[in-house]
Amino acid sequence: MSATIEQVEFQGLAALAMDVSGARVVVSLLGGQVLSWTPRGGKEWLYLSEQAVFDGSVPIRGGVPVCFPQFADQGTLPKHGFVRTRVWSVVEQRTGEDFAIAVLRIVDDEETRAIWPHAFALELTVAVEDNRLDLELSVENTGDEAFSFTGALHTYLRVSEVEEIALEGLYGFSYRDTAAGNVVRRESGERIMVDAEVDRIYCKVTRPLLVRDHRRSLGVNTEGFPDVVIWNPWETRCAALADMPNSGFRRMLCTEAAVADQAVELPPHQQWWGRQTLVAL
């Protein structure tokens, strides 16, 4: 059975549905955001809040939001930048017997230049195989002046119970503990277990991650992105989020491919790219 890409409506939004040998991905044009990924023969791996808002007034809570040109509140722009609530264009679609690829693009306009005076083009390439999802983000400086940026693929993983999963691969790496006032620490555990609020930026990560969730596991690998962000709001902060149920923190863990510790300096007419690969095991 060959792969297919169809234009669909998802929660009232224009989207692409990519099907490959029983695997399925849904990508919203609003935000250029992957909202669902089910590998062949498996269960959903992305968390999407039951209370997410889909009208564009706020970013969609869940899936894989694209953060650009600012990560979190590390600057004067809206938190995580401004591309999460803007409509992207589909510029390429390709399928084969065992893969599907879609490329979404967004460029600067008068509205973006009013708050961030730079010319840019972003492309998100989504590639799907039976048990694999590749997301590649490219940033092009299309102007005549250099600019700097931070950002991330803010991946919300769906887990059965966050207190019972284990995250491996970060042993020995230094991290900035945002939840503890930006204290810098070194990871001493071979496995990270989540039993409280977690908000950490792991720097210069060079190994893949492994998420163990009972009988299923997920491999997470990045290229180009120097940092990995791990986030779970836990009970108090989750209750303060209007677009997330009070118990939602128990069903998610963010493992984000990121440029967060140090900004990328991008000269005129140059490109940068980063990739995150998820493999269901």
UniProtKB/TrEMBL annotation:
SUPFAM superfamilies named among the record's database cross-references: Galactose mutarotase-like
Is Acetylation among the key words of this record?
no
Output a single Gene Ontology CC term carried by this record. Answer: cytoplasm
What reaction gets catalysed by this protein?
alpha-D-glucose 6-phosphate = beta-D-glucose 6-phosphate
User: What Pfam families does the record tag this protein with?
Assistant: Aldose_epim (PF01263)
Q: Which UniProt keywords apply?
A: Isomerase
The active site is formed by 154, 256
- E.C. code: 5.1.3.15
| GO molecular function terms attached to this record | carbohydrate binding; glucose-6-phosphate 1-epimerase activity
Gene Ontology terms describing biological process: carbohydrate metabolic process
Q: Does Nucleotide-binding count among this protein's keywords?
A: no
The entry's family comment says:
Belongs to the glucose-6-phosphate 1-epimerase family.
Supply the name of the protein.
Answer: Putative glucose-6-phosphate 1-epimerase
Q: Which organism is it from?
A: Parazoarcus communis
